[in-house]
Amino acid sequence: MLAFRLALRNLLGAGLRTWLNVIVLSFSFIIIIWTKGLLEGWDRQARNDMISWEVGGGQYWHEEYDPYDPFTLTDSHGPVPSGLSAGLADGRLAPVLITQGSVYPRGMMHSVLIKGIPPQQQVVQLPSSNLEAGDGDVPAIIGEAMAESTGLKEGDYVTVRWRDRNGTFDATEVKITTVFKTTVPTEDVGQIWLPLEKLQEMMLMPGEATLIIRAPETGPPPEADPWIFRDQDFLLADIETIIKAKGSVGLIIWAILLLMAMLAVFDTQVLSIFRRQKEIGTYVALGMTKSQVVGLFTLEGAMNSVLAAIVGAIYGIPLLLMQAIKGIKIPLSSSDFGIAMAERLYPVYSLWLIAGTVAIVLLVTTAVSYWPSRRIAKMNPTEALRGRVQ
Amino acid sequence: MEDGKVISIEGLKKHFPMGSGRFTALNGIDLAFVEGEFTGIIGPSGSGKTTLLNIIGTLDNPSEGRAVILGHSVSELTPAESASLRKTQLGFIFQTYNLFQVHTVFENVEFPLLLQGIPTGKRRQMVLDALEWVGLTDKVNSRPAQLSGGESQRVAIARAMVKRPAVVLADEPTANLDAANSHNILQTMEKLNRELKTTFLFATHDEKVIGYVRRKIWLADGRVARDEQVEKN
Fold first, then answer.
1. Which of A91, A256, A276, A299 would bridge with A7, disulfide CB 3.0–4.6 Å?
2. Does a structural domain hold residue B74?
3. Does residue B92 belong to the interface with chain A, where contact is any CB pair within 8 Å?
């Protein structure tokens, strides 16, 4: 208690020197929390968007389907297994047929994946209701990134070419009814969506699909041999890898910021011990043991962090809260980044993140304060009183 | 304490390493001090007076011989015991005052009482009493930077005296003061010595201090060259 009282008195008494140090340290606190919160928010948003736009509650894949090998698309289709017909009937499953093809906007050829999905599906967030047949045209929807790369816009007509199940090339004109906005690049870039039945008809594959998406949280998946069920963990494995890689970068940023905080405290401590030799000698002369003086200086260093946490909370909580509510506008599009990324990211600050950061910075600064303070134990008090210790 | 002696020194030697050899600062000192003495240890720079004061103050250990302070042999004290002795029984006054710059006058004087864990109310009264002894009750909230040299040294005296120590060790207390301030603080210490029976030991070569002490011990080359009592009215 005495050491705490003296440390606080010394720190507050040092005035500007203390506050400058505290402010620098509080920046470290806030930036560490902000960076981690931003990455956490990004991760959460990316995972949620992938689930709601693409992954759903898992997918059944045709046994030949390999999303990384476009040549498998020729063979990876088949009738929907009978075990899944109930799910199809009540809308818990959404079949998707995928094939390769080309579009020819303004006379340019673009290779695309043509995907068919039931217009009435509500399993994923894709605005497939805009694929309902209208005025006799074949409706199609594309994402903003696709629209940008092809120059297509709503109301445009574009020629689509494909090969049917017999290998025969065929082509038709489709009308872009909607350009949708998504944060999930794998639903947008190089893709054009048509009504499932229309695509099945074009491909001569009635009732067939390449994969079937399950609605999230619909209980254990029924068997559908020979189709393979891929759960969320499997389907999110790629994004988890990216998140992990991103986490390593975050860890480096975090370590750099922590190092800055450590340096600030270490530097202050070394300077403080050098400048305050007479004071140290006086403490000993007045009856403190050397270990008490070491404790006092260590506590002073550690209390820099406590004050920094308080100061950081004063300006940091409103700042971070505002960002968590209003989000941060990101100038990159999702297609540029290869991972689901919204235009506006909402940082997530968990209690664990804040408490953990404060605890770690406090522990580290205490250790860093103790390190130079140990020198006091080796000081000769008579030399310290004269300010002669080097 | 034997025969009312607060300090007893026998055959005291202190060597410091110097290059490949050693420097002998004290070379066989035999002295004794009784309660209430007002003594000057006098000598030029390098004569060993500060070293002697440091050993008496348990800040340093003898190389040879024996120094017994208030019944405790300095060389046999553990660090915690010597700290405890300084905390309760010994007061220090330094040439450069050594006040804590970030503390107020009150807080500086309060410090030794905080170390002793004296309760707030009693502590406050003791601090105000000590500041009254030195005539600085109007400066309780000032910081050392706002004080003159004389005022700073009076705060240092109050800090040394506030715990009512048995012995006060003052190392060149007037070296940084002008004549008027020197006389002022010496009169203050003389008054406290008389009223509280505190033993004062000065390390000095200042004639003004020498004029006030009742016992003069001259050191030369680490030895006692002369030890004389002065009769005063």
1. A299
2. no
3. yes
Cβ <8 Å between A13 and B101: yes
Q: Are B36 and B42 in contact (CB under 8 A)?
A: no
| DSSP 8-state code for residue A73 | G
Q: How far apart are CA B69 and CA A294, in angstroms?
A: 27
Q: Which two tokens stand for residue B149?
A: 């040299």
Rounded distance between C-alpha atoms, residue A268 and residue A344, angstroms = 39
Q: How far is A279 from chain B (nearest CA, A)?
A: 7
Residues of A in contact with B100 (CB under 8 A): 10, 13, 279, 282
ipTM of the complex: 0.93
Q: Which residues partner with A173 through β-bridges?
A: A159
Q: What angle do CA A8, A14, A17 make, to 5 degrees?
A: 115
Question: Structure tokens of B172?
Answer: 């060149």
DSSP collapsed to 3 states, A14-59? CCHHHHHHHHHHHHHHHHHHHHHHHHHHHHHHHHHHHHHHHHCCCE
pLDDT tens-digit map of B96-114: 899 999 899 999 999 999 9
With CB atoms and an 8 Å threshold, state whether B102 touches A9. yes
Is pTM, for the whole model, over 0.80? Answer: no
3-state secondary structure of A9: helix
- Spatial neighbors of B157 by CB under 8 A, at least 6 apart, are B93, B133, B134, B173, B185, B188, B189, B192
* pLDDT score at A342: 65
Q: In terms of CA atoms, which chain B residue is nearest residue A379?
A: B59
Q: Where are the domains of chain A?
A: 2-52+239-385, 58-230
Q: Do A385 and B57 touch (CB under 8 A)?
A: no
What is the tens place of the pLDDT at every residue in A335-387? 555 556 666 788 888 888 888 888 888 898 889 888 888 888 888 888 888 87
If one counts the domains in chain B, the total is 1
Q: In the prediction, which pLDDT does A262 show? A: 83
d(CA B157, CA B150): 11
Handedness of CA B166, B172, B178, B183 (dihedral sign): positive
Whether B88 has its CB under 8 Å from any CB of chain A: the answer is: yes
Whether B14 and B68 have beta carbons less than 8 Å apart is answered as no
Within-domain flag for B18: no
Tokens describing residue B151: 């005022």
Residue of chain B whose alpha carbon sits nearest to that of A284: B83
Closest to A10 (Cα-Cα) out of A271, A279, A266, A270? A279
Q: Residue B95: which CATH number?
A: 3.40.50.300
CB contact under 8 A, A281 and B84: no
Q: Which residues of A320-329 are buried (b: 16+ CB within 10 A; e: fewer)?
A: beebbeebbe
Nearest CA in chain B to A382: B59
User: Containing domain of residue B145, as a range?
Assistant: 37-60+81-228
